Amino acid sequence: MTTGRSKIFYIHTFGCQMNLADSAIITALLQQAGYTPAESEESAGIILLNTCAVRENAVDRIEHYLQRLQGMKKRDKGLIIGLAGCIPQYQREETLTLSPAIDFLAGPDSYRTLPALIEQARGGAKPTSLEFNTAETYEGIDPVRQGVISAIVPVMRGCNNRCAYCVVPFTRGRERSHPFRSVISEVQKLVTAGYSEMTLIGQNVNSYHDPEKGMNFAALLDAVSREAPRARVRFTTSHPKDISEELVRTIADRPNICNHIHLPVQSGSTAVLRRMNRGHTIQEYREKIALIRSIIPDIALSTDIIAGFCGERDEDHQASLELLSCVRFDSAYMFFYSTRPGTLAARTLVDDVAEEAKKRRLQEIIDLQNSISAELFQQSIGSVVEVLAESESKRSAEQLMGRTAGNRAVVFDRERYQPGDLVQVLITSATSATLTGRPEHC
Ligand code: 5AD
Ligand code: SF4
Predict the structure, then answer these.
(1) Any long-range contacts for 369-372 (C-beta under 8 Å, 24+ apart)?
(2) Interaxial angle between packed helices 282-295 and 314-327, expressed in degrees from 0 to 180 and rounded to the nearest 10
(3) Which three-class secondary structure string do you get for 176-201?
(4) Is residue 366 packed enough to be buried (19+ CB in 10 Å), middle (13-18) or exposed (0-12)?
(5) Is 165 close to ligand 1, i.e. is its CB under 6 Å away?
(6) How many CB atoms neighbour CB 242 within 10 A?
(7) Which of 193, 227, 232, 402: disulfide with 389, CB 3.0–4.6 Å?
(8) Closest-CA residue to 223 (of 244, 240, 198)
(9) Topology of the domain comprising 8-129
(10) What is the pLDDT of residue 415?
(11) pTM
(12) Cβ(276) to ligand 1 under 6 A?
């Protein structure tokens, strides 16, 4: 490798928005240490994979990637490859056995050590930095974000719940909230930089608790929306147990907080929810939905759902379908269950739903949800919606792609508009995933 490339890095980000936010922190930390981000993977001397361990197929994807990187490394002996994020934190030192191409491992709480890890790796060691640090919120680091329209703002890290299927408590550690004042000062910077949308994120965002003065998530959301009155404010992911009337009223009262709640349910059956250790029954979940809709009737709701969890009987699966039909979510992330070693489910329950049944149930869930989304989207044909334009559409520079406050994707004729503009769009057609339209002029 030419010495010029040894200080140039490229990050591949897998998984959730938390990993995207972490990649922005990693970029800032490496830049502070004199490294430069690469335009493309080929021009980099250091390649980092910021990984996700939440489902088995996420790990399979990384293994495929590593095979390709191993080929690159054979041709370019000086190339340094690091694995960061949830996989190394979860599989610990054993992660090194995934591929001889891996030079170092860095868990989510140890990104400040990245410059040292890179140097040690260059010296031939295979260093690992996998300590949990419950004090680490990366306060004081200014994330280097991609794009200038929409910003992800982490407000808490980790999770104190123990959902039986989930690796997050093992990969991200105990919950810790960022100080209220540091979130607000970050929002002020984003306002000055001209961002049009801010998404507050946390694994369990609505259990936010200011470590200094004890403010809750409703107070934080309210303050952020006032600090950035011209930006759209979103948040994700919420846990049903932490949806309070105060929070719903805050969303209703503040015009720039988007009327959208992502509220994972995971199963429509109380028996399954109990085995999942979710901490609520389906009745309680429905009561939260009723509360939300009584205050904000037109709110957009989305969810996560798992098919084929341990001990799921056909009647439990029918209960999940029934819940989808009844609530009519705008959209859903739908998965079949995969065992994650070390979790409560892996240790105490039997993964007894046959693979074929899991996949069949998942397909039924997907088919039903797609038909519901399609119906809901069809109903919006003829209406005018406010869209924040995010980018050119994939198909044509003559069209822009953006989102409604309810997070529906909209493709519309570009006319004179640019990404970043708020546009009133008349919806003319719809599929189960996208609305199409043209700007409405008054
Ligand atoms: N198997 C399948 N889906 C899972 N999820 C988390 N862990 C698993 C697992 N072991 C899903 C949940 C969660 C989303 C991020 O991923 O629905 O809300
Ligand atoms: Fe995982 Fe449950 Fe925490 Fe979500 S709330 S991150 S599913 S343990």
Answers:
(1) 369/324, 369/329, 369/331, 369/332, 369/334, 370/432, 371/432, 372/324, 372/325, 372/328, 372/329
(2) 0
(3) EECCHHHHHHHHHHHHHHCCCEEEEE
(4) middle
(5) yes
(6) 17
(7) 402
(8) 198
(9) Rossmann fold (3.40.50)
(10) 96
(11) 0.94
(12) no
Phi and psi angles of residue 416, each rounded to the nearest 5 degrees, phi first? -100, 10
- Pick 150-378's CATH classification: 3.80.30.20, 2.60.40.1240, 1.20.1250.20, 3.40.50.300: 3.80.30.20
| Rounded Cα–Cα distance for residues 410 and 391 (Å) | 11
Q: Which CATH architecture does the domain made up of 384-439 adopt?
A: Beta Barrel (2.40)
**In this predicted model, what pLDDT tens digit does every residue of 96-117 receive, in sequence order?**
999 999 999 999 999 999 999 9
Cβ proximity of 321 and 285 under 8 Å: no
Token couple for 251: 């969303």
Q: Say how many Å lie between the CA of residue 55 and the centre of ligand 1.
A: 6
Residue 274, helix vs strand vs coil: helix
Q: Is 335 a pocket residue for ligand 1 (Cβ < 6 Å)? A: yes
Q: Which ligand sits closest to the CA of 334?
A: 1
Residue nearest to atom 14 of ligand 1 (CA): 304
As a whole number, mean pLDDT of residues 224-252 equals: 97
Longest C-alpha distance within the chain, in Å? Answer: 66
Q: Does residue 3 have a pLDDT over 90?
A: no
Q: Does position 395 have pLDDT exceeding 80, yes or no?
A: yes
Q: 247, 399, 268: which is closest to 329 by C-alpha? A: 268
